[in-house]
Amino acid sequence: MENKKKDTMVKDALILCTITLIAGLLLGVIYDMTKEPIAQRKILEKQNTYRSVYQTATEFEESEELAEKVLACSNDWNTNGSEFGKVIVNEALYAKDENGTVIGYIVSATSREGYGGDIQVAMGIRLDGYIEGVSILDMNETVGLGARAKEPAYLSQYMGKTVDRFLVTTTGKTAENEIDAMTSSTITSKAVTNAINAALAFASDYAE
Description:
Elements (H helix, E strand, L loop, with lengths): L1 H52 L5 E3 L2 H17 L6 E10 L5 E13 L2 E10 L4 E8 L13 H4 L11 E3 L8 E3 L5 H22 L1
Parallel strand pairs: 6-7
Antiparallel strand pairs: 1-2, 2-3, 3-4, 4-5
């Protein structure tokens, strides 16, 4: 009786191992099948975002030169610190017109000091520093509070301007470079502004 019980346990264990192995193999196959479509979708979403923040550009080009400058910027800020807090520049591309002429940059930057964590923005910046557009790529801020940073009413404060830096105010903006903080979301407002300021600094200090 005891041997029979052991045989049953062994069989059950083998069956469980077989099921686990098959499930693992299936998951691997599914991952391989979906990995490329997911990656392509993310690329398409990113390109659509870039078009939305730089509507006068017809092409966005990656460049080893810009990639090296992004790395140089990251190394400088890691070594010497950044005046924008905990920020990084994620990516930079050339924005080109229909003739293939470089007319500006797409710069993506992240502040690590949002209320809910990282906040990543994408910006279209002309060669003269004029801000064509701004979009939030990723954030985990509170719905109804910090998440309002994605809304045009807030982001429009940054657009169509040529400034070196933006400042967040809670008393009502009176200057071109001032941004009205969202009510009860000053931390988010500052994090978004720091990411945008980091992108501007990269474009003016490193990209050119």
